[in-house]
Write a structure and sequence with these properties.
alpha/beta; binds flavin-adenine dinucleotide; 14 helices; four-stranded mixed beta sheet
Length: 426
């Protein structure tokens, strides 16, 4: 006989866990069916041999409104990165650009003309500051265009765009054409000004683990791939479950195959490489946990960072762990050789003795956020069937979490459960 509950959530990524949390705190009997062997979805961390390797380099911004409302930051023990970037250039030159409130010592580099005019830098700083002061609702309703169009319309010169903004934003959007919606750019800039990108000391997966641990025991059922979904039933791993509401909180592609009427956006892909560098830690970026990008785009690397500078537990025993990302899903030995050569240029040091300890090729890391971007896509598909996931909001931890709560709130309304506590954040 089918197991019967009030609500079923399919998928234990951040969207699904956030939905389950909201339902559970309102007394709804909910289970989460997850196809893989652990929670987190795209936010997983492999822990072995004293290393912590996130499955794809990513950063958490504590200014994300939904995360700030829900997560216990103290328990996550967030390790901040330098809010800035080192732009490496041919000939061994490099420029350090950062938030002057937090890295005043880098101001001299920022003033220099090597990476664009001071006026362009001031104009970009103004854009970011304005975005940080603008309510989310205003950003999401503003006229949309591509990021490239927005930057040029703001009078930012090509040198600053090509040498700094395009290399930097490629790592954020996982696309290099600056085709991403200016609405999404504004939301990203807003969180950069308001918060310092960080990783939890125990790896990015500590975020979904915290959400799971707050759920009643037995809520999450691992190794349970859903193969068929209706508004009142789910078949998963050969078992049947019945419910009064079902939320599909899978990755976008699976949501598109389980549900009708859900459009799947194109996906941006990435490969993240991890190397142990047998060097004095201070010899790489002076011991700062800061992104390094290539202003001259001389190779496949879109960004690299010494992640152990921020969070030493990522490589115990004082080892130096470098995380490097490239666009696409190429992870052959030849690809690694060109990554290693590019790293040599970026860090200005020999890399032949660096040890590769991991590589993660992720075909669908982020849903493309192309204009015109609808930042609040419907989550209620009717009759008790709901959908959540970053593809309903924005391609981010914030987007996934807020989509889960929106779907859960819609389920509460469907079940006639009165809401308590705070309302949906930005
Ligand atoms: C490499 C990379 C870098 C990123 N960088 C950042 C960043 O710096 N900052 C940021 O904010 N965000 C970043 N993101 C985005 C962020 O991680 C995602 O937006 C978010 O994790 C998506 O969560 P989700 O719950 O919507 O989907 P997912 O994490 O994809 O979760 C879906 C879950 O559903 C499960 N599932 C799939 N099919 C089934 C099925 N049939 N039955 C049951 N379960 C199923 C999956 O196993 C998975 O656990 C990055 C993502 C990647 C991959």
């Amino acid at each position: 006989m089918a197991e019967s509950v009030d609500a079923i959530v399919v998928g234990a990524g951040l969207a699904g866990l956030s939905a389950a949390r909201q339902l559970a705190i309102h007394g709804v009997d909910v289970i989460v069916l997850e196809s893989s062997d652990d929670v987190g979805g795209r936010v997983r961390t492999d822990r072995f041999d004293g290393l912590q390797l996130d499955r794809g380099f990513q950063l958490f911004n504590p200014a994300y409104p939904e995360a700030a409302r829900v997560l216990d930051y103290e328990a996550l023990d967030l390790k901040p990165f330098v809010p800035g970037v080192i732009v490496a250039r041919a000939g061994g030159r490099s420029t350090r650009l950062g938030d002057p409130r937090r890295k005043p010592g880098w101001a001299i580099d920022a003033i220099g003309p090597a990476t664009g005019s001071l006026l362009s830098k001031a104009r970009f700083a103004k854009l970011a500051w304005q975005a940080s002061r603008t309510p989310v609702g205003t950003i999401t309703r503003s006229p949309d265009s591509t990021t490239g169009e927005k930057l040029r319309a703001a009078g930012i010169d090509e040198r600053f765009i090509e040498q700094v903004l395009r290399p930097f934003l490629t790592g954020v959007f996982l696309e290099q054409d600056l085709a991403t919606s200016r609405r999404f750019l504004d939301l990203v800039l807003r969180s950069f000004v308001r918060g310092v990108p960080s990783v939890p000391a125990r790896g990015m997966q500590a975020i979904p683990e915290q959400l799971r641990d707050a759920l009643p025991a037995g809520t999450v059922r691992l190794n349970s791939p859903a193969s068929h979904v209706t508004a009142t039933s789910v078949t998963a791993g050969g078992k049947s479950f019945s419910a009064r509401a079902v939320i599909v909180a899978t990755d976008p592609t699976t949501a598109g195959s389980l549900l009708t009427g859900v459009t799947v956006p194109g996906g941006n892909s990435v490969t993240t490489w991890y190397h142990l560098a047998p060097v004095d830690p201070k010899s790489l970026t002076g011991g700062d946990a800061v992104l390094v990008v290539d202003g001259d785009r001389r190779g496949p690397v879109i960004n690299s960072v010494v992640i152990s500078h921020a969070a030493p537990a990522y490589a115990d025993g004082g080892r130096v762990l470098v995380s490097t990302s490239t666009l696409g899903t190429r992870d052959s030995a030849d690809d690694e050789a060109s990554v290693r050569a590019h790293l040599e240029a970026l860090y200005g040091t020999e890399t032949s003795d660096w040890t590769r300890v991991g590589a993660y090729a992720i075909p669908y890391a982020l849903p493309a956020m192309l204009p015109p971007l609808d930042v609040r896509k419907p989550v209620d598909l009717g009759d008790g069937l709901f959908v959540a996931g970053d593809h309903r909001d924005t391609a981010s931890i914030q987007g996934a979490m807020v989509s889960g709560r929106r779907a859960a709130d819609a389920v509460l309304a469907h079940l006639g459960v009165r809401q308590c506590g705070a309302r949906l954040g930005a």
